[in-house]
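Sharing a chain and its predicted structure for anyone who wants a worked example. Both blocks are below, sequence first, tokens second.
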Amino acid sequence: MAESILQSTEHLRRAAYDALKASEAFRAFKALDDAVAAMGGQRLLAVQGGVTINGSPVSAFANGSARPEINPPRRRRVSQAEGAEQVLKEQRRPMTSAELIEAVRQKGVTVGGDKPLMSFGSTLSRDPRFTNHRRDGLYYWWLAGKELPEAWNEAEPDDFAGLLGSASSSSSQEGGESHAATT
């Protein structure tokens, strides 16, 4: 079967590129281009998949009339545990799974599964960065090795709901937190 014009052209381009990469001049240019980039300068070499050309032909880079634009690196996905740690540090207070999962989701962290609260609670209970404490019939997550906030220890059970701000009702245990609490 005859190759299409596109396939033939791609084959020729690959052969030419392989020959170019093998040349001493290309290796020297690439080393200099890498050094400039390492010092914070702009690359002239359009690297496959990492640089856009801003509508300019690649030949424009040779005379400096156009500059490549490096695509910003993708943000690393934040894990559920990392998100929970960030939230607890920001809020500076223990939080229930329901509160914590909502705050973590607002940060863009995905919490899925058939039973998200149970999955989330399981994730935190296996992570050594977290501990949970029972208070007023509920379990609250906190950072392991970090002292509980002073207000947590000083509050009377009747005053405790006021410390939680927008906390949910304390009428029943939330899902995913029925495991034994560590203190």
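Comments welcome. The domain at 80-163 is CATH 1.10.10 (Arc Repressor Mutant, subunit A).
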